[in-house]
């Protein structure tokens, strides 16, 4: 059996979210900051009248912040009834991965990444690390 992932870049890493979880991909949207929100909450975005939480995925994964002025892409995902915009550096391709090709997450992962990455798959040109969408959008859980 194969699983399709929408891939995206954060720094040098290639990550993925299952296609069935992705609602849409948008260019950078205007953010409204939320006072006293967790640090990974970048703000709120208005998607055609629906107010959606925007999560800075770099912060969520414990990665260094992106350089000032570099654009982001909003990967809008749906988990149950919740819609969340994940801020990523750029979108890659949709790739199909055989479940047999998915390895366990690398032992070298630590912090939030160790909790959110579900596995690893060697693609022809780089390593893909799929994320658990449910745990990624659940801001109350911290590694």
Automatic annotation (TrEMBL):
One of its GO terms (biological process) is signal transduction. Residues 2-142 form the CheW-like domain. GO terms for cellular component: cytosol. InterPro entries: CheW (IPR039315), CheW-like_dom_sf (IPR036061), CheW-lke_dom (IPR002545). SUPFAM superfamilies: CheW-like. SMART domains: CheW (SM00260). PROSITE patterns: CHEW. This is Chemotaxis protein CheW. It comes from Pseudokineococcus marinus. The lineage of its organism: Bacteria, Bacillati, Actinomycetota, Actinomycetes, Kineosporiales.
């Amino acid at each position: 059996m194969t699983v399709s992932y929408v891939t995206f870049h954060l720094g040098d890493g290639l990550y993925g979210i299952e296609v069935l979880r992705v609602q849409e991909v948008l260019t950078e949207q205007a953010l409204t900051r939320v006072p006293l929100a967790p640090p990974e909450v970048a703000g709120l975005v208005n998607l055609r009248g629906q107010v959606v939480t925007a999560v800075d995925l770099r912060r969520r994964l414990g990665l260094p912040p992106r350089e000032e002025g570099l654009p982001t892409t909003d990967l809008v995902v749906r988990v149950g009834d919740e819609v969340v915009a994940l801020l990523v550096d750029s979108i890659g391709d949709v790739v199909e991965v055989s479940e047999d090709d998915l390895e366990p997450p690398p032992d070298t992962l630590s912090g939030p990444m160790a909790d959110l990455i579900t596995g690893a798959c060697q693609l022809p040109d780089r390593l893909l690390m799929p994320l658990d969408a449910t745990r990624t959008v659940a801001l109350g859980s911290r590694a």
